[in-house]
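Hey everyone, long-time lurker, first post.

I ran two proteins through the pipeline my lab uses and got sequence/structure pairs for each. Pasting them in order. The first:
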Amino acid sequence: MRGGELGIKSRMLGGALRFNLAGYYQKFKDMQVKAGSVVSNGGIAVRTLNAAAAEIYGIDMDFAWSPPQTEGLSIYGGVNWNLAKYNDFAVAPCWWGQLASEGCNQLLDTTTGRFSAQNLKGAPLLRAPEWTANAGFDYEMPVSDSLKFRLGSNLAYSSSYSTTIENFYYQRAYAKLGATLGLGRQDGRWMVELIGDNLTDKLTAGSCFVEPVADSIVLARSANRNGATTRGPTGIGETMCAPNPGRSLFVRLTIRN
């Protein structure tokens, strides 16, 4: 791997505004990725594949502002533009049911006359959205001589990204909202907070893979026709995903000596 980063870190407006900007670049050779699949007994196996070459470059910006007119208020945000792609991945696995005309045209099996891999050169890396952003605020104010109140909120955004190593299924763009309410001592000895994550209950996909799970059990994967000219009886496989957490509410107690 080789790469680098160049940027600036600054403080302005008498220290009330912090602004950071950076550009980065990384290039990988002999990069390894993991691929999940269903084996003949219905279990799930994880394989390690050599993705050959990939590159990542982008620009990252963030800021934090504490307005002098409002004591205890902090406003922050950030944006990241990221381009991550394979420069060479000629042995990427095909998704279940992918035809030769749909790109499954690498590694010909002379016994079956079908192909078993696809070339994903130029395709995006796994779980690498082009755009991410966040914005929010934190506010603290005294409510008595010994107690303080805390309020905060954050909105996080992500553009779409690939969730499968076969580059078959994409998570759509989404935004998630979080918030915090807290009450504690002025000196920071303790704080009780009610925290809410993903308050809009936006369900998003985590790790995914494409396999005909039901048909694998019934037909023992014998109907696999990847890399053929026509699909087999199982058709296109199902996309199996582990979802990220939905709406979450919890209480946090912090005690400092």
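...and the second, right after it:
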Amino acid sequence: MKHLVATIVILLSMHAPAWGQSAKPSGAADLAAYTGNDRERILFDGAKREGKLVWYTTLAADQNKTIAAAFEKKYPGVSIETFRTGSSALAQRLLTEAKARRHIADAIETTPPGLITFRDNQLLLPYTSPHLAAFPEDAKERASKNLVYWTTARESYVGFSYNTRYLKAADVPKNFDGLLRPALKDNMGIAGEDTGARIIGAMIKAKGDGFVRKLREQNLRIHMMAGSALTQLVAAGEIYASPSQFYSATHVAAKRGAPVAWVPMDLVVTSAGGVALYQNAPRPHAALLFADFLLSPEGQKLYEDLFFGSAQKDYGWKRWYPEKGGTLAQYEEALDDWHKLMKEITRRGPA
């Protein structure tokens, strides 16, 4: 009898993992943590019943349309409604809706300050994905039970962009020290928005604020516009160069024939866009299916086709994530200090 009981126990223990794995998820939390081989089928079937998903994103309109079209083609019967705005406005909208218990959003794609705010307000649904293993730990904001609050799906890199007609190859800086070269005096601009302030932060981290103050001698002009808009001034030759330029914007301009090129500095400010799920998503199947799609090799290629970088790849430069290493309040305080120092060392250029 004892041998019979022992045999039954062994058999039960052998089959328990298979039974547990085949248990179908019930509820959004179970669905988000489900790792069965039939995950995609379960999510797609549920998404078709839900019919659509609502995606809150900070991507530009043409970029999110490209991604939405690819998803809808792969998963017919599931449409995407997109709400697109800036990161601050997106964060405020979701917070306001959550407070009013108006649950509209399903999937979220935005930058770390907004994601941190949502996490701290318990508005994110921790999830897993079959594609997480391909991402480095720095790209994953860990939650409990081996789940994540978000995963970095795309990156933008800030470095030195210059007009190839006006700046000789010998005068192109290879690091922050090179910004002090005589050929760049009176000929550089910097974005007056957060992009410019964050590159000031990178200079401080790499060289100290004493180095940044030396840039005053270069007669650096501050332009109250986003870094991507400043690319047009570089392309037109109104300024020869800028240390606050996005790799993506520069390469798009170069592809269209503009005489511009981009090089990394000691630290490359990295703006990350993370994929997250709203805690009270009305359509959790569609939200999870979409998150898996963005993190899949197909989704990552879409981002790269739009000139974004992938956290999965080593491009040969040292990334720096300004928001990492402290609280959101500490980052915002540092950002304010970087803005102040930037204004101290620059003169006002055309808006």
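Reply from user beta_strand_b:
Welcome! Quick read of the second one: The longest strand covers residues 148-163. The chain is about 45% helix and 20% strand.
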